[in-house]
Amino acid sequence: YLDLSGVTDEQIAEAITFLGFEVEGIEHTGAPQLDNVVVGEVLTRDPHPNADRLSICTVAVGEPHGGTKRIVCGAQNYQVGDRVPVALVGAVLPGDFKIKPSKIRGEASEGMMCSGKELSMGDDHSGLLILTDRPEVGTPINDALPAGDVVFDLEITPNRPDCQSHLGVAR
Question: CB neighbours of 111 closer than 8 A, spacing ≥ 6?
Fold first, then answer.
């Protein structure tokens, strides 16, 4: 309804405040910028020899990222052929969680397959985020996920019923 290209969130909040509405909060939806996180496809899933609930997976991550990676995973909600977000070595996930090569119960792991919560895309930590629209392997995750948006939480006074909707505020 308004062309806001080139305008920052803070400038919008300031303009809304000058119009007489209190901005109670600003929420950013969607995934934050995630470098070294790509779309991967699970090629194999074998039981971990030293742990009942872990699997050793071979995951295709695309040629620019090394082709395939060996990753130890504890999630149970995925199958061979699923496409999932893969944090490669060097990635820094929300919460300043750095991905580095590691050994999990004696087996090497070269990255991490991620849940929605680990990518700050919700509270579901019960399993991996399955990418059902099957984006191309190796695609940066920010290109594969829907773009986020900004939500402004406004306090509208009772004497302004004309501004009880987004159309009214835009007008």
Answer: 59, 61, 69, 71, 86, 87, 88, 89, 91, 99
- DSSP state string for 45-71: EEE-TT-SS-EEEEEEEEGGGTEEEEE
Q: How far apart are CA 55 and CA 120, in angstroms?
A: 24
d(CA 147, CA 164): 26
* Residues 6+ away with beta carbon under 8 Å from 11: none
Whole-model pTM: value is 0.75
DSSP 3-state of 131: coil
What is residue 2's predicted lDDT score, i.e. its pLDDT? 83
- Residues linked to residue 83 through DSSP beta bridges, in sequence order: 41
CA distance 6 to 33: 19
Q: Which amino acid is at 57?
A: C
Torsion of CA 110, 116, 117, 121, to 10 degrees: 130
Residue 123 structure tokens: 């509270």
CB count, 10 Å around CB of 58?
16
Burial (Cβ within 10 Å: 0-12, 13-18, ≥19) of residue 57: buried
pLDDT of residue 19: 87
Neighbour count for residue 163 (Cβ, 10 Å) = 18
The pLDDT-based confidence of 166 (bands split at 50, 70, 90) is confident
